[in-house]
Amino acid sequence: MYFKYLFIFCVLFSITANSQFLEHDKNFRAADSLLTEASFSVHKDNYFLTGVPLNTDINRQSADVKYQVSFKQRLSSKPLLGGFFPYIMYTQEAFWDIYASSKPFSEINFNPGIAIVRPFYIKGGRLTYGTISFEHESNGRDSIYSKTWNMLAFSLKSQLSPRWTVGLRGWIPIVDKEDNPDLTKYVGYGEASATYQITPGRWSADIVFRKGSGLLNYGSLQTQVNWKPYQNQNYYLTLQWFVGYTESLIDYNKHTSMLRLGFVIKPENMSIF
Questions:
Q1: What's this model's pTM, rounded to 2 decimal places?
Q2: Which of 41, 70, 133, 138 is catalytic?
Q3: In the chain, fewer beta carbons within 10 Å around the N or the C end?
Q4: What InterPro entries is this protein classified in (predicted)?
Q5: Which of the following is catalytic: 62, 136, 213, 257?
């Protein structure tokens, strides 16, 4: 009789222990997806693009160069309470009127921030990053040319399959109503993104849709097709199309449509958002 109960207890304990081990192993493997990347790494896409407008005349003033530098630093190799990893990140995007006579920079946007990232697996073993971040974005100017806002953002990024990666991001905007009374209407409250590997390791496509506060207006759409010329290198040739509002802060309330060609360096692993 006692051996019977002892046997049942051992079976139940084995199942429970194995379940806990598998859950621990899944968490370990999820965390390892961040730890295999260098602590200092690419954050968003780093790119250098040049192009022309599609909704106005093409001339020396309307054609431009757009480039972006973006990186992040993981502050700890061990997770904090709740399995979160702390990060600081920085992105700088510039619009350069390189074809004009004096070749001025028409706008530079600065975007520093801090974040905590929680890697985990959802049903089907799909790697997912949950992120909470606080960010500042401004153009570094003063007086009437100052455009600035802050956000508390929440995002989920998930690799649904070897070809599809999707993301949802929402934020609570914090805006100075005196300097930028209607900025919130244009930056909106969230965005959705997707990446599809057309030919894994060679061709991919990205799309980012940002929703403004209006029912149909004030949003933006950015799409790009990327081609990787060398599989052992981490840069791509890319064709990017942006249409909508808030491509740059200085012209946040002006509708633009720009087609640009250039090269991009992407994060080696799935980006955190």
A1: 0.87
A2: 138
A3: N
A4: PLipase_A1, PLipase_A1_sf
A5: 136
Q: Which tokens go with 161?
A: 């399959």
Residue 179 marked ligand-binding: yes
Using one digit for the tens of pLDDT, what is the confidence trace for 151-177? 999 999 999 999 999 999 999 999 877
Residue 47 C-alpha from the chain's centroid:
14
**For the segment 125-158, what is each residue's pLDDT rounded down to a tens digit?**
899 999 999 999 999 988 888 899 999 999 999 9
Q: Which domains does the chain have, with CATH numbers?
A: 37-265 (2.40.230.10)
Query: 210 among the known binding-site residues?
Result: no
DSSP assignments along 42-68, one per residue:
E-S-EEEEEEEESSS--STTT-EEEEE
The token duo for 265 is 């360096």
